[in-house]
Structure formats: C-alpha cells, structure tokens
Amino acid sequence: MRLYGTFNGTLVVAGLAIIFTLLAPSIFQFFTIITLTQVIGLSILALSLALVWGFGGILCFGQSAFFGIGAYAYSVAALNIGGSTGAVFIAILAAAIFAAILGYFVFYGKVSDVYLAVITLTVSLILYSLMRRTSGPEYKIGKALLGGFNGTGSPPLNVPGDGSAMLFPMQTFYVSMAILIIAYVFTGWLVTTKFGRVCVSIRENEVRTELLGYDTRLYKLGLFSISAGIAGLGGVLFCVGVTRVTPDVFSLGQSALAIIWVIVGGRMTLIGPILATFVLYFLTSSLGSQQIFNANLVLGIILVVFVLIVPNGVVPTIMSWFERRRTKRYERQKERRMKLRKHRATG
Amino acid sequence: MDLFFSLALQILYGIANLALISLGLAIVFGMMRVINLAHGEFLMLGGYTVVVATNNGVNLWFAMLILAPLVVGLIGLIVERCLIQWLYGRMIDTLLATWGLSLLFIGIITSIFGASTSTVISPPLGTVTIGEYTSSGYELFLIFVVIVLLILVYLTLKFTSLGLVARATMQNSDMSACLGISTSKIYMVTFSLGAAVSGLAGGLLAPITGVLPNIGVIYIAKAFITVISGGSAILAGTTSASVLLGGVNGIMSYITGPTFGEVALLFTAIILLRLMPTGITGRFFRKSQ
Fold it and tell me: Is residue A315 part of a domain?
C-alpha cells in the first residue's frame, strides 16, 4: 500500500501523533511539556506555510504576519471578553480576513510569485515596526494595552463557557496537541478534495488550469486565506505557551524560521515541516544555551546548504530513496522471474 | 513660508533616503532579476566598515565615501562567485539562499561585535537654519550625494562601454553572449557594483542611525517596496517610486506622526501594485533606464 501522499497516510501519522501525545508526559519533564506547547504553535505555522507554498505554489514569505495577527487578536479579544473560546475563533477569523484583503490586491493584481514573496515579507516587517511603536497608554483596544516593544499578556486557555476555569499546563499541552492533529488531518484532507487538487494544478501550471476554466485567482485567494487562518491558530497556541505576545512574532527572524522549517522538512509534504519544527527548535534552543555559535549563523548556514544541496527537503528525499529502492527490488524480482521462465522454456 | 520650506526639505530628505537605500538593490534587480534579500546586511556591513575604520583613526569622509563601498563591493564579489552564480534563473532559490546569507551575516557580526550598538558617530556638518526652523546640514549633504549618485549611474549606463554592454545583457543575455560578451563576468561586475552602492549607502547612513547587527531590517522593507513599485528600470523606477512613496510617507508622518507614515507607504505601494503589477516603469517611461 502506498502511504506517502495519501489521506490514509495522513491518518496513520495522526494515529502516531496521538500515541506520542499520550506517552509524552511520562517521557518528558514538566518544563519540556510547557515548551512543547510553544513549539506546537510554531509547527502549526510551518504546516500552514507548507499548505500554501507546497500545495498552492504561493510563496508567502510573511506567513508570520498572520501568525502574529492571530496571536495579537487572541490576546486582545481574550482580555476584553474574559474567556478564551470566542477569542480563538476571533483570532482565526482576523488572520483569515487580513489575508483575504491582502490576497485580493496581490492575486487579482496578477502579481507574480516572487513579487508576492517580497510583498508579504514587507507587510510582516511593517507590522513589526508598527507594533513596536504602540508603547503609549493611548494605544489600546478595549481593556488591552498593546504595549509596544514589550507586547501584551496573553491569558491562558480556559474551559469553554467558564472564563475562570483556566487549563493547567498539562491540559493545555493536550489541547494543543489535539489542535495540531486536527489541523494536520484537516489540511491532509483539504489537499485531497477537488479544491485542493485544483490548487495543486495551479502550482504545476497556472495558465493551463486557467484555460481549463478555473478562476485561479479565486482558488489562490481561498487557499491563502485558509492557510492564514491556520497560521493564526498557531499564533494563538504560541502566545498561550509563552503567555505573552511581543512584536517579535512579526520579525524577519520569525518569517525566516518558518521558511527554514518548510525547506528542511520538505515543501511537498505536510508532516515534514512539522517534524522539522520540533527538531530544529530543540537544536537551536540547545545552541542558544551555549555561546560558541550564534543561532542566526547556524540557521543561515542550514538555509544556504539546503537550498544548494537538498532543495527538496529531508522527508521527500528519504521517501524518494525508499521509492527507488523498492522499484529496484521489484525490477530485480521481475528479472529473476523472466530468467526463470526463459530457463524453463529452453530447458 | 519657513514651515513650508522646512517641511519640503524634510520630505525631500525622506525621498533621498529612500532612493539611497534602494539604489543598490535596484541595480542588482534591474540588471540581473535577482532579488537580494541580504541587501539590508550589505548596508549594515557598510555601516560597520565606517565604525571600525573611524575607531582606528581613519578620516570619517574617507571611510564613508571610499572605504565602505570598496569593502562591501569586495564582499559582494565573493558572494556572487561563491553563491549567486550557481543560482541564476532560479529566482526563488536565489531569494532563499540570499536570505540564508542575510542570517549568516547577522550571526557573524553579532559574534564579532556583540548585539548592541557600537560607538556612535555624530553626524558632521552642524545645522542649517531656515527662518525659525533648523535642519541638519548632513541631511542636505545626503540629498546632494543621492543626486550625484543618480547622475553617475545614468552617465555610466548611457555613455560608457561597460554601461552599453550591461544594458545589452539586461535586454537579452543570450544574444549578448552570442556577440562575444561574457555575461557571467557582467553579472559579477554588476552584483559587486550594486553591493558597493549599498555599502556606500550604509556608510553614509551610519552617523544618523548608528549601527546594529540587525539594522538591515529597518532598511530592507522600504528598499524592497520601493524597488518593486518602481519596476525594472533602474533609475526611472527608483526615482519615481522614491518620490511617490517618500512623499506619501513624509506627508503622512507630518500629519499623523511616524507610526502611520510607514503604514501609509505600504498601503500606497500595495494599491499601486494592484493597478500596475509590473511597477511604475512597467507602465510609464518604458524606454528609460
């Protein structure tokens, strides 16, 4: 059975993730569990970028803009409402609507993909400098001060309908893992639907798809907004994990990290970027604790090396290696069978 | 009247600033269709060159006008030979590789000089008084430098044989190669020249902004949006986009404060790209350089 790239494969991976979730508390220390919540948020960001870039061919360099908007929207809404459930949905909607407006301008303007990359990156950077300047008491939305450079506090998740029943870190971890798995299965399902297939065909050949009668602008806009919504959800989990949101979510480094995770994991897969997020996060945080190598330096080298040498990413490279081995074995078997038959015929 | 003059000077300075930080990027983008995401770091390296040189007793003017472009141009040459030359025609990979390069530069500089501001150089040339308003003499000098720089680039492109060959390569690289021009060499020279101009800009801005390992971020967003709004023509594009965006930024900053100036700049650029997806020079001044 061919698992890779099918919905069955997605379900198998989701099953493994559930087993990981259940085992995690007995493997990891409590502190690691708390950190994992942040990493889960970041891996959802990587997942959303893998969806829009890997499957839609839309090179969005500023995916962290939607991530940050989600985080800020959640924090502001949760502080004002006094509960987290509605705020999560507000965050997803805010990110998706912002993406839809931006996407209208770029997709309906027929901006080419490289320009799109730079525009999205610029949007993210402008948000960065905008949020850094909101430090005065006059910059507030309802009860929430935006707080400029220091950012604003993010309330923890709570039981739906009861604003005072906060979740404990362990419960937050379970909820985050559940959200990650749901988001993963959702995107895995989405790319197998008709909508997803049209998006893949746009990636392969936009002109031909358009000639077949699909409004590619609309499909791209839809995929862009959905992926932004997912990124916003990732932002929510991230700011809950960190307990605050600062303008750094919009920084160049944050956008670069998302790209690096997707490149390293493999942009044509959904699980690759998620795994790469976990591995690279713990790699860079262990590098950050010692002073010899600067984290930026290491990330820069990783990015350059992967672009030059492994442009497809780790997971697809391993997959194609297995595929090659299997076809080779199959061919060898076929050859043996032919030889045997020939032997029988002559003998 | 004095207010008007002082405001006009402010806006003119904003425009000159935008043109200065974008010109190096525009040269590389216009000639080679390469978007260099490490552009901000070239500016940063220019700034560090000036700081290190002046700390070692070199004359500030010499460091800014000669040393900074020379050093960064050399770095650009090395980068082109080691990295960019393998990636021509793969636009997205170039974007990613130069992004990696940008992180690498930030990492190296942070490791050497630390993450905080190195010695601040105070801008030379004192102040200029207009009625009851004062303006920095250095800002006037920068406006002058930008005008000279634009004229120099124009003359180089229009009247030298290098400019002729470069324009030919820009228009049709295969045909130029058939005529015996080594396009690879032209790309190499163009990239280092672009880097040198960025280094000069970084060096000139160092006294105003100070230097930090990640100061490139401040420039990069504005530089990109200017170059992309301008389109592929180097001079006409950069100038027209700088005038438009710098003007909007200056006026909005005057009305609402600096926070919304940049947002207005971005909005203008996005609406502009909705109307003219190939930039200003994609629609107007098509025959220009």
Answer: no
pLDDT in tens, A237-292: 999 888 888 888 888 778 888 888 888 888 888 888 898 898 888 887 777 665 55
Q: Report if residue A305 sits inside a domain.
A: no
Closest CA to B188 of B65, B34, B20: B34
CB B63 within 8 A of CB B51: no
* Rounded distance between C-alpha atoms, residue B18 and residue B33, angstroms: 20
Provide the domain limits for residue A126. 7-292
Reported pTM: 0.81
Q: Where are the domains of chain B?
A: 2-215
Supply φ then ψ for residue A344, to 5 degrees.
Answer: -65, -40
Distance CA A216, CA A219 (A): 5
B126 falls in which pLDDT band (50, 70, 90)? low
Taking contacts as CB-CB distances below 8 angstroms, the residues of chain B near A59 are 92, 95
Q: What is the pLDDT of residue A325?
A: 83
Q: What are the DSSP E strand ranges found in A51-163? A: 140-141, 144-145, 152-153
pLDDT tens string B78-108? 998 888 888 777 777 888 888 888 888 888 8
A345 in any annotated domain: no
**Phi and psi, residue A251, nearest 5°:** -70, 165
Q: Which has the closest alpha carbon to A177: A26, A4, A30, A14?
A: A14
How far does the CA of residue A44 sit from the closest CA of chain B (Å)?
Answer: 21
Q: According to the model, what pLDDT value does residue B197 have?
A: 92
Is A301 part of a structural domain of the chain?
no
Q: What total number of domains does chain A contain?
A: 1
Q: Is the minimum CB–CB distance between B112 and chain A shorter than 8 Å?
A: no
pLDDT by residue (tens digit) across A153-178? 778 877 776 667 777 888 888 888 89
Its sign, for the CA torsion A50, A52, A58, A61, is negative
Q: What residues of chain A lie within 8 A of the CB of B241, using their CB? A: none
The full DSSP string for B106-130 is HHHHHHHH-SS---PPPPSS-EEEE
Q: How many angstroms separate the CA atoms of A20 and B61, rounded? A: 62
Contact A83, A227 (CB under 8 A): no
Tokens 């392969």 belong to A204
Query: Which residues from B are below 8 Å from A100, CB to CB?
Result: none
Top residue of B99, B220, B248 to mutate, by most chain A CBs within 10 Å, is B99
Residue B220: name the closest of B11, B27, B64, B25 by CA.
B25
CA distance A278 to A282: 6
Residue B134 bridge partners (DSSP):
B129
Tell me A142's DSSP state: T
The confidence band for A43, taking pLDDT boundaries of 50, 70 and 90, is very high
Distance CA B188, CA A264 (A): 29
B82 at the A interface (CB within 8 A)?
no
What is the value of ipTM here, to two decimals? 0.72
Range B208-241 burial, b when 16+ CB lie within 10 A, else e: eeebbbbbbbbbbbbbbbbbbbbbbbbbbbbbbb
